[in-house]
Specification:
Number of helices: 3
Strand content: 5-15%
Protein name: Tc1-like transposase DDE domain-containing protein
Order of helices and strands: EEHHH
Distance between the termini: 36 Å
Strand order of the largest sheet: 1-2
Shape: elongated
InterPro entries: RNaseH_sf (IPR036397)
GO molecular function: nucleic acid binding
Number of domains: 1
Organism: Collybiopsis confluens
């Protein structure tokens, strides 16, 4: 507890971080013994600006997931995909297994670590390009 005359002493100050208005949406995948590609998506954000099936197909499914999927299937044989249940993720022919609650989905812990890692950087990203670079760095 501080006294009134200690109001501005460094030991009595608690640093704060205002959340940036710059945001990105990140897609990634993991599997036993292998880390998949990480993609920072072009994301309009806000209402009606989220990811729909067309954007998912153009930015993730066709250029990222399908080539990775093909490579892993050739290396390992049959592989099943687990997505997070978002409606945009259901419009493809890759075999899937049921989505567990978020608390059981192993990638949720990775997203938590990614966000925490970006927050702990000394230079907090305030521009889109620096946020994308920070995501890839972490």
């Amino acid at each position: 507890m501080r006294r009134a005359d200690e109001e501005f002493e460094e030991d009595c100050l608690v640093p704060t971080f205002k959340q940036s208005t710059v945001r990105v949406m990140v897609w990634g995948c993991i599997m036993k013994g292998k880390k998949g590609p990480l993609t920072v998506m072009e994301y309009a954000g806000g209402k009606k600006g989220g990811i729909n099936a067309r954007i998912y197909q153009e930015q993730v499914l066709d250029p990222v997931l399908l080539p990775f999927w093909t490579q892993v299937e050739s290396e390992r044989g049959s592989v099943s995909f687990q997505h997070d249940g978002a409606p945009a993720h259901t419009d493809h022919s890759i075999s899937r297994f049921p989505h567990p609650p978020s608390s059981l989905n192993p990638i949720e812990a990775i997203w938590h670590e990614l966000k925490a890692g970006v927050r702990t950087l000394q230079d907090h990203p305030t521009m889109l390009e620096s946020l994308i670079a920070a995501v890839h760095k972490v």
